[in-house]
Amino acid sequence: MSPSAFLAVETGGTKIVWRIEDSDGAVLDEGRFPSGKPEDVVQGLTAVVAGRGIAAFAIAGFGPLVVDPGSPDYGLMLATPKPGWTGFNLAKALAQHLDAPFAVDTDVNAAAVAEARLGAGRGARAVAYVTVGTGIGGGLYVEGRTLKGALHPEIGHLFVRRAAGDAQPGLCPFHGDCIEGMAAGPAVQARLQGRRLEDAPEVMGHVADYLGQLVASLVFAWAPDRIVFGGGVMSTPGMLAQVEAAARRSVANYGSAVIMGDGPYLAAASLENAGLEGAMLMARDLKA
After folding, report:
1. Is the pTM of this model over 0.85?
2. How far, in Å, CA of 231 to CA of 188, rounded?
3. Which domain holds residue 13?
4. Could you tell me how far CA 98 lies from the centroid of its own chain?
5. Most Cβ neighbours (<10 Å): which of 28, 52, 137, 244?
6. What is the pLDDT of residue 13?
7. Which family does this protein fall into (predicted)?
8. d(CA 34, CA 12)
9. Pairing state of beta strands 126-132 and 226-230?
10. Beta-sheet strands, E only, within 111-204
11. Domain termination site, one of 52, 74, 106
């Protein structure tokens, strides 16, 4: 009997999540474990798929990594502060054990796939996904493909203009005042000094301003039909609406404003684990 199960894996800074489904989409098994040494991750994943008959698998990974399927280094992890992972290729290590085709993309590109096909981006031709958490990242899904070039997009390191009256130092160790340095989770917590974001309107205003500038940059550069936001910072009540208002101010009725239309342009992510869902779709696409 030919292999008929599919494996999806999402790697993160602290954990690995995985799921195995049969050919009909029924979940056979799923779980998570710490993302420690890469060799331990390979051992853990090969143990959970033992005897399953994996037809294809896909990895939604944290970056930076090589996502060009035509590269001999496809799936290779580039320089990362995570100990032991620089220069490691999880996909190829798993392929040696599973003897199955694989796909690799960034976690945010995989999330864009899932939200476009299953979630808040359904019905849109081009969907951008942006996550605002410990870091800021984004991916673009257009007509069946994610945006990839020599590497993958790193929109979290786009530069923004400081909001009037904002003297908070940027926290990005590479760029200081990039969007990640100004509005990702650690920067937000530094601004709050123990308060809750919903109880600090001046902080919400600054964060919304920077994220609105990011949206404007994506509108000008990518022209997505819809932008889906996920991540812990965006779960704050009222944040999405403030970001949309700030984005419209940044676009300032320029011609690209037609993309945003008159109604809500931004959408909250609707999938609990969009990266893993996207990885499963990527795995199934290999055998479609």
Report:
1. yes
2. 13
3. 5-106
4. 26
5. 137
6. 83
7. Belongs to the ROK (NagC/XylR) family.
8. 9
9. parallel
10. 126-132, 136-142, 145-146
11. 106
> Are residues 116 and 88 in contact, defined by beta-carbon separation less than 8 angstroms?
no
| Cα of 239 vs its chain's centroid, Å | 19
Q: Give the count of alpha carbons within 13 A of 212, CB side only.
A: 23
CATH code of the domain covering residue 87: 3.30.420.40
Structure tokens at 65: 């990594």
Q: What is the largest CA-CA distance in the chain?
A: 67
Same domain, 60 and 138: no
CA-CA distances (angstroms) from residue 262 to 227, 245, 276? 15, 12, 33
Structure letter (DSSP) for residue 194: T
Per-residue pLDDT of the chain (288 residues; tens, 9 = 90+): 578 899 999 998 889 999 999 999 999 999 999 988 999 999 999 999 999 999 999 999 998 999 999 999 999 999 988 899 999 999 999 999 999 999 999 999 999 999 999 999 999 999 999 999 999 999 999 999 999 988 899 999 999 999 988 999 999 999 999 999 999 999 999 999 999 999 999 999 999 999 999 999 999 999 999 999 999 999 999 999 999 999 999 999 898 889 999 889 999 999 999 999 999 999 999 998
3-state secondary structure 39-102: HHHHHHHHHHHCCCCEEEEEEEECCCECCCCCCCCCCCECCCCCCCCCCCCHHHHHHHHHCCCE
User: Given strand 15-21, what is the order of strands in its sheet?
Assistant: 27-34, 15-21, 5-11, 54-61, 102-106
Q: Is residue 135 part of a domain?
A: yes
Establish if 278 belongs to a structural domain: no
Whether residue 169 sits in one domain with residue 35: no
Burial of 196 (0-12, 13-18, 19+ CB in 10 A): exposed
CA 66 to chain centre: 15
